[in-house]
Specification:
Elements lengths: L25 H47 L3 E5 L5 H7 L1 E9 L3 E2 L2 E2 L1 E11 L8 E13 H11 L9 E5 L4 E6 L2 E10 L2 E10 L4 H17 L6 E7 L3 E13 L12
Antiparallel strand pairs: 1-2, 2-5, 3-4, 5-6, 6-12, 7-8, 8-9, 9-10, 11-12
Helix pairs in contact: 1-2
Amino acid sequence: MPQPPAPPPPPVSGGRPADDGKGRAAGFFTRQTVFLIAVIAVALVAGGLAGGELYARHRADGILVGIAECVVEDGATISYGVNPPFLWQHLTGHYTNISVHTAGDRVQSADGMTADVTLEDVRLQDSADAKGTIGSLDATLTWRSEGIKDTVAANLPGVGALVTGVSTDPGAGTIILQAGSNSVTAKPVVAEGDLNLQVLDVSGPFPKDTVQTALDDLTRKLNDNYPLGIEADSVEVTGSGVIGRFSSRDASIPREDANPCFARL
């Protein structure tokens, strides 16, 4: 009597998963789908964060560049610290590091001056008398000799118009204002947070006291216009001009009624 056929052998462990009857492996399809969904979700989240980061930077640029240009009365560019991500800084209103570089045409009344400013621990917290605080501000102001000449000419009626050039003596730490065959030798100095020009010698018809008073009026105008409690720390005479270093600590960000430049914050 013939024996019935033997049953088929069981599937080998690790072999191909059972077919779902539609020409595809159900287990494999499920794992693949979950993986693809996870990849797509991560890509969407990453794309959203990147888009938010770009939008936040674009919006902050528009506001902060406008404020900087209003304060210095010149073009400016802004850059930011990257830790934590800028989007988080923007959402919390706490900026760890902001750098400002100006175009170099002028800083307020000072022609031919460039400002490089670093602000740290900036917190936007609106209150009755301030829009926030700045933990520290450090600024380097570079004033070219030609700019000093133009500034003196524009701000000192009569005397300024006679100045034909400005040269520097880095060894002596002095600047020389030339007016034809006449000259004024002055030494940039820092006193009580102000940057002043101390007249050492005058060659020409003007009394030394008269020249000193005129230069005091000029430097007072420049010092009084610096915002955020900025004060001079040091000054250096170079071969091409004067470099002043300024700073401020725990400064209050003014409201628009105190300084219209900050109205957009």
